[in-house]
């Protein structure tokens, strides 16, 4: 392996700094980092255990776009070695490498990325600042390099409860990585109140479970309620056999669930509104407020393959151009492929449903008492596991397809390219991950018919909810997918990078020994050799996707599982340090990329927050027992005595004659199988509840949006001050020659 160490002279750095519209300092400021939780604890007079003193804190600056002819007005312009930061030098060098044409054909032969894809070079990366391990335990903090500071004060498991040093992360890895960790830390902090409230609601469920009259009636009913078979070859069963499962369902299905659903809907809106403010503050502090509109350049691949040029209406510069009509045609064609893949996901979901039905039938007719008694539950749990494996396999296939389609669509900037890619994958993953929980929540057990007149799908009788009800089944589905996926992901993030690093190091050392034909390998490898042994950083897409999917689970289906925010909080505490360790210890240093925020992920989060309100309204109205119980309390008996009998219908006379036995089933139907007046009254109440719930929550959410300004007043003042200083510093009459 041969190495080329690249650097750029001062004149090249200055030329490209102006070309890339890099922002450089005019005037230093004290670092004005402010964290809301630190302010709250300070006002309450409580010691803040999350605060930590991190050495070499980067200064804050008033900045403006670099101009070579105004060089003397920039702070530190007399020190050529330190004027441009390390990350800015990396950006300049990468821009040169990414835009240099190396072949005669203009079609593709441009940039270092194509050279890497064609194996001309095996790698191209900026060097880390040195080793991440400390030279000794007694080393002075000020003597540590940036990588050692990040390892000691950020990627260290002992710092799991400390604030992240965001300015250090931004200085070393760039704005795009820093925004991800800023958002992840902010989201994790906001999960704390949600987890506390969710745990209290769950504990209230435990208390209610032991004092629930319908649960006591079921447990004491013995052979009073003989229930109709749940599938074609399933046996009749006693309602008292589901005593434990029914009680478990009460953990999630009670009045506190309504409060928690409203709380989480408003929590999601308030969290996103405050993130907007945080994003605006960070974007200004990190000099990227105008990045997407003014400063972002076209992608090198786009520049190389665009068929024509056009004048940019904002900057006035001539830029490569791809006709909108052609792009829209390609996007439309790509959308057809996405729809086809979604149809495949739906087919897999249907196959999992059929699997559950068939397994339930096979177990019920097996003759083993333990299998017969738990047929529905075993089929449901194994179906959830099968569904999880389908999800993981289909995800891998689709992501490769989405990359190809997005490249083909010819997006001008990296931000637009990533937004298009993210949107495609998210739509697919949303259907992939949420189709099964949506089916259990809103369709399973709703269209089954009644004894003697069951509804069939593909020749198989439609699935009924398990004896304990669909809500307990949904909670189980969420825990399997959400917690199962988190455990698998965290194991992958711990084990796979370590194994890859070990294999890469082993392969490198083996090849070096072979090359030196038995000569002793140097004890101390050169920095580029050490960096080459590390793994390639493949972006933050998977990390964002994992967190956004988690956000969906804790908001869309929170009525079914109040403990979801707690599991998410515990996972995220681990996730932050895992991701930090991977970046600092296991990966080559990525080229610092600029960003204005978390991009399209924010708009996806907003859509999920709105969808959560609608989902929880329908979940409480149609899947939960809350409204039927409330109806019975007000109309018949406030103590709920007799509710079990009220909620069960008698099998029609035709079915009784045909089978020479009578049985009961869950429904509000008359003896002839038609819907009873109670059913229609409850349907009206359910629809009224949905409308009322949505209107109240959306009204309060809109009020929160209006009351919380998107940009803090302090940031607006700083922006005006910065513009004034830039105007003063760069005015022609201020420059002396």
UniProtKB/TrEMBL annotation:
Principal location listed in the UniProt entry: membrane
Recorded GO CC terms: plasma membrane
Segments crossing the lipid bilayer: 177-210, 256-275, 331-358, 378-399, 420-442, 547-570, 598-622, 679-701
UniProt GO molecular function: chloride channel activity; protein dimerization activity
Pfam family, one: Anoct_dimer
Protein name as catalogued: Anoctamin
Localisation: Cell membrane; Membrane
Stretches assigned to the Anoctamin transmembrane domain: 169-722
Membrane topology of the entry: Multi-pass membrane protein
Entry keyword set: Cell membrane, Glycoprotein, Membrane, Transmembrane, Transmembrane helix
InterPro entries recorded: Anoct_dimer (IPR032394), Anoctamin (IPR007632), Anoctamin_TM (IPR049452)
Every Anoctamin dimerisation domain range: 1-166
One BP term from GO: calcium activated phospholipid scrambling
Family statement drawn from the similarity comment of this UniProt entry: Belongs to the anoctamin family.
The species this protein was found in: Crypturellus undulatus
């Amino acid at each position: 392996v041969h190495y080329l160490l690249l650097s750029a002279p001062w004149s090249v750095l200055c030329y490209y700094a102006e070309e890339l519209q890099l922002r450089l300092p005019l005037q230093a400021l004290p670092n004005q980092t402010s964290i809301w939780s630190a302010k709250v604890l300070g006002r309450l007079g409580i010691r803040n255990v999350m605060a930590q003193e991190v050495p070499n804190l980067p200064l804050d600056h008033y900045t403006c776009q670099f101009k070579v002819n105004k060089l003397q007005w920039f702070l530190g312009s007399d020190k050529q070695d330190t004027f441009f930061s390390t990350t800015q030098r990396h950006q300049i060098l990468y821009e040169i490498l990414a835009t240099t044409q190396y072949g005669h054909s203009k079609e593709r032969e441009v940039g270092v990325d194509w050279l890497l894809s064609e194996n001309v070079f095996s790698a191209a990366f900026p060097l880390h600042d040195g080793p991440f391990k400390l030279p000794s335990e007694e080393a002075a903090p000020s003597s540590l390099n940036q990588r050692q500071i990040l390892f000691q004060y950020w990627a260290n498991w002992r710092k799991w409860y400390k604030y992240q040093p965001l300015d250090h992360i931004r200085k070393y890895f760039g704005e795009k990585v820093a925004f991800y960790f800023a958002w992840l830390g902010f989201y994790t902090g906001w999960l704390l109140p949600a987890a506390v409230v969710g745990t209290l609601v769950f504990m209230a469920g435990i208390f209610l479970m032991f004092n629930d009259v319908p649960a006591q009636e079921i447990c004491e009913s013995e052979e009073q309620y003989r229930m109709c078979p749940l599938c074609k070859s399933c046996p009749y069963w006693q309602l008292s056999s589901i005593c434990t499962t029914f009680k478990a369902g009460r953990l999630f299905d009670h009045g506190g669930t309504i409060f928690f659903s409203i709380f989480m809907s408003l929590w999601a809106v308030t969290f996103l509104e405050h993130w907007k403010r945080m994003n605006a503050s960070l974007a200004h502090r990190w000099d990227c407020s105008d990045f997407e509109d003014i400063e972002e350049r076209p992608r090198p691949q786009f520049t190389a393959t665009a068929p024509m040029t056009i004048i940019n209406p904002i900057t006035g510069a001539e830029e490569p151009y791809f006709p909108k009509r052609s792009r829209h045609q390609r996007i439309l064609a790509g959308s057809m492929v996405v729809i086809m893949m979604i149809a495949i996901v739906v087919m897999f979901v249907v196959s999992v449903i059929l699997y559950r039905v068939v397994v339930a039938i096979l177990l019920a007719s097996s003759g083993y008492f333990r299998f017969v008694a738990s047929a529905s539950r075993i089929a449901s749990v194994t179906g959830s596991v099968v569904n999880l494996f389908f999800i993981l396999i289909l995800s891998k296939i689709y992501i490769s397809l989405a990359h190809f389609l997005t490249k083909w669509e010819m997006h001008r900037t990296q931000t637009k390219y990533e937004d298009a890619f993210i949107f495609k994958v998210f739509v697919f993953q949303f259907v992939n991950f949420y189709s099964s929980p949506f089916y259990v929540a809103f369709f399973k057990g709703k269209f089954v018919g009644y004894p003697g007149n069951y509804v069939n799908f593909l020749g198989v009788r439609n699935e009924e909810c398990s004896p304990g009800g669909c809500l307990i089944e949904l909670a189980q589905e969420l825990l399997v997918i959400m917690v199962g996926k988190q455990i698998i992901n965290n194991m992958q993030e711990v084990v796979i990078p370590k194994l890859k690093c070990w294999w890469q190091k082993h392969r490198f050392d083996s090849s070096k020994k072979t090359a030196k034909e038995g000569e002793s390998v140097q004890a101390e490898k050169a920095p580029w050799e050490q960096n080459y042994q590390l793994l390639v950083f493949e972006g933050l897409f998977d990390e964002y996707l994992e967190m956004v999917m988690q956000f969906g689970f804790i908001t869309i289906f929170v009525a079914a599982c109040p403990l979801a925010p707690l599991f998410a909080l515990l996972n995220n505490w681990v996730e932050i340090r895992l991701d930090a360790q991977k970046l600092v210890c296991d990966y080559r240093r990525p080229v610092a990329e600029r960003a204005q925020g978390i991009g399209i992920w924010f708009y996806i989060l907003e859509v999920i927050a709105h969808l959560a309100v609608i989902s929880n309204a329908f979940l409480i109205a149609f899947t939960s027992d809350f409204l039927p119980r409330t109806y019975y309390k007000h109309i018949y008996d406030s103590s709920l005595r007799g509710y079990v009998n009220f909620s069960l219908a008698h099998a029609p006379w035709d079915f009784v004659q045909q089978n020479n036995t009578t049985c009961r089933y869950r429904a509000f139907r008359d003896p002839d199988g038609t819907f009873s007046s109670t059913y229609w009254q409850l349907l009206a109440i359910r629809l009224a509840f949905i409308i009322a719930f949505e209107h109240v929550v959306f009204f309060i959410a809109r009020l929160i949006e209006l009351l919380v300004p998107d940009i803090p007043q302090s940031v607006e003042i700083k922006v005006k001050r910065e513009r004034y200083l830039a105007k003063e510093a760069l005015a022609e009459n201020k420059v002396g020659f």
